[in-house]
Write a structure and sequence with these properties.
The complex is a heterodimer.
Chain A lengths: L1 H62 L7 E9 L6 H16 L6 E4 L2 H4 L1 E6 L2 E6 L4 H7 L6 E10 L2 E10 L6 E10 L15 H12 L5 E2 L1 E9 L13 E11 L6 E12 L3 E13 L11 E14 L13 H9 L4 E15 L3 E9 L13 E3 L2 E3 L1 E9 L1
Chain B lengths: L1 H14 L12 H5 L1 E6 L1 H7 L18 E6 L9 H8 L1 H16 L6 E7 L3 H17 L3 E3 L7 H7 L4 H15 L6 E7 L9 E6 L2 E4 L2
Helix pairs in contact in B: 5-6
The chains are: A alpha+beta, B alpha/beta.
Amino acid sequence: MAAVGRLLLFALALLAVTPAHAVDGSEDQAMQAELDRVRAGIAGEVQLAAYDLLDEMVYGWLQEPLFDKSTPVVLASVTVPVGLGTGMQALLENHISGVLAQNPSTNVQVVHCPSCTAVLVHSGPEGTVLSRGVDNPSALAAVSNTGNKHALFIDIEAEGAWLVLRARLTQLTADLPVVWSRTIATSASTPALLREPGDLKSAADARAEYLDALRDRGPLLVPVRFAVRTYARPSGRLATGAPPFLWLQSGAEVATSEGRGWTGSMLVGYSFIPQAYQGLMGQVRVSRLLTGRVRSHTRPDLYAFVGGAVMSVWGQSAAVFRRRRLTADEVLTDNAGDDPRNTFGGLHTGLDLRLGNRVGVSAFLEAVPYLSNSPNLGNYTTIAGIQFQSLGTEVSFWF
Amino acid sequence: MKTARAASLSVLSALLPAAPAPGLFFSKNQVRRLDCERLTVGAAATQHPGAIEPERPRGDYVERKVLRCRARLLRSDVRSPRIEAVLMDLERTMQTVAGHVGALSANGTARTWLVEAHDPDTRLVGKLRFALQNAMVDQGLAVSDRTPRLGLSDLEIITRLPPDRAYSAACARHAANGSIGPAEALVALVARDPRETALHAGVCIDGGWAWLQ
């Protein structure tokens, strides 16, 4: 019985142990795969920032050339952050070489020197020395003409939230003096400038160019707006209410600043439905940006607005804009003679959702105080004692 | 009633602590990825003009504190904790060492400085040396890229000495074999223990070794 128990225990132990090893192995592989994926992602993010730092360094050379005349420089080494792969190293080498080739006025002439970066074995009176060519100029001179060459070393490292570029230029003479060095850093949250290699700019110039791009349309815009105003039906079975009024509006919209935090507009409008009504209107509106202090180029902007409008409408359907109840006699009289004409003003408030100040949709409530007691119109809602008889929607295009 | 209120407040503060503390919406791993520093309101308004309002001319109605957090570039599991710790403060460490070296050079003796770094992780050696060289050039010091050499027989003896004697012995041999000339000096960055993240620095001047930090 005890032997059976021991056998059972052994079998259980085998069952428990065997999958555990399998799981451990797959977990390691999964962790490694995850780590590789993370490294690739980070390298992709870091690469643009590293390009930016290299561009900044070359831009500095454009402003203050290191040499009076074109000088051969060996790209001795480019090292990338610890933990990231050598693929990034190759990309950075290509980028710096490309940028320098497109900017000859830096007077830095990148030259190919295989013996500079190769390991050389040099035997002399002091012994046998193994080193890279750039680290042992006397050995390098024996195999190639160093002339007036310099060696450029570049190191990029991730230090906390900062990506730091360090560069130094060493003269390939016996003493290997460091003739120039620079440390530049950019934070992880700073977007890369993505400069054109052939047209490098300072951050200030790039910002000015960006602002110019923002200001391409200026503070004055011409909106074209299609609006529909619906009117609340009055209570009562015999009441017919007013039909929806369609308006085509245009005019000018001006902003107080490039950020378009506040805008004001003056529009005129025309409305025409054959055998029903025609209308003319003038409208003034002030809008305030709600989503941020300045308009966005990447997401929609929401504005709140208040305004006023004066409308003059005529036609058979305009008869309802009277302050007293329509009678059968009035309807007959209107049919027999001139179309009824009514002029009234309204105050409106609403929200406007705009996409890049190119296209937008809005909704608003309008109060018509002149017709507040009219039996021909009802109220959609009452806010702070103000009765809103009209509900409107608009689609706008800005040019 | 008071106990219940206090308990509910405790639970609420534990679930929703002030950012960037970990809580309901931020895990500990997310918070560990942040690199935070306190700023004065004036400095924050200067550095982040759109995000932080400057102080009002007659003072703010409430006291404001600014804590700026930036996400670290690399996740903590990409590199070993020691490498991460050394690299996190690399620039500041090197500026400190360069400042000490600059103070040594302030006595009027113009020397060319050679730079060495010794670290158990070979990937760090070049990084440390590079950073110190740049920091020293920024201090206006003459720096050379040359590496002083020791003979094989010297190395065999020096590597068998205890560390405290090895550095001074190596320094003496450098001076004796002429790899560090009279107008030159050596500054070495040393990680004396593979477990520690603080770096030590020593100088070799005229055959004499001294620790800077």
